[in-house]
Design goal:
With 212 residues, the chain is an alpha+beta fold. It has four helices and five strands; from the N terminus they run ββββαβααα. Strands 4-3-2-1-5 form a five-stranded mixed sheet.
Length: 212
């Protein structure tokens, strides 16, 4: 019976979650399987791969053929490397102890690489958050400065208007005094006008007598 190591889809729509399974190659993709040997979650960053390495190596040794994606996951978690090392042990090229040491060293290096990526992503997120806070702070400071400038401008305009009112109030009494003086002069002129008219007939009389 040909056996495939492949992915079986689970999870919600838009958020897939996969099982890594060993299944009959003739079975449907999401149908029955022989053994579940791991999980794969592509929704995290980096993607989370949980694999039973010994079970995967056992199926590889029994002739199971992984699909392209499954092969990538097996290589990512070191199953293919351990399968290769176990082949060297069977051939006598190295001892089991040496194979285990090499595999453990590879796992430590791989875990360090994954952790470095996680730390880098965390640092990038922290930097992005700090930059966003700084940008927000700058916007808030600009808004505060603009509001302060508007308040100062309004206060200056109010002070200028108040000063103009004070100046106008100081000039008003003089204007009223001048107006009263003008009215007095006008009344005096009106009082003098009848006297001039009264003198006119006498002048005419003297002219008439002269002619006689």
């Amino acid at each position: 019976m040909p056996v495939k190591i492949r992915l079986q889809r689970h999870g919600k729509k838009g958020k897939p979650f996969y099982w890594v399974v060993a299944a009959d190659a003739r079975a449907k993709r999401d149908g029955r399987y022989l053994e579940k040997i791991g999980t794969y979650n592509p929704n995290t960053n980096p993607a989370t791969v949980d694999l039973n390495i010994d079970a995967a190596v056992k199926w590889l040794e029994n002739g199971a053929q992984p699909t392209d994606t499954a092969r990538t996951l097996l290589s990512y978690r070191g199953a293919l490397l351990k399968h290769h090392l176990q082949g060297g042990v069977r051939k006598g090229a190295l001892s089991q102890e040496d194979a285990d040491k090499k595999f453990e060293a590879w796992l430590e290096q791989k875990d360090a690489q994954i952790q470095a990526k996680v730390d880098g992503l965390t640092s990038d997120k922290a930097k992005a958050k700090a930059d966003a806070l700084e940008a927000e702070k700058a916007v808030n400071e600009k808004r505060t400065a603009d509001a302060k400038a508007l308040i100062e401008e309004a206060a200056a305009a109010e002070a200028a208007a108040k000063k103009e009112e004070e100046i106008a109030a100081e000039e008003t009494p003089e204007t009223e005094a001048e107006a009263s003086v003008t009215e007095e002069e006008a009344s005096v002129t009106e009082e003098e006008a009848p006297a001039t008219e009264e003198e006119t007939p006498e002048a005419e009389k003297s002219d008439d007598s002269a002619e006689a």
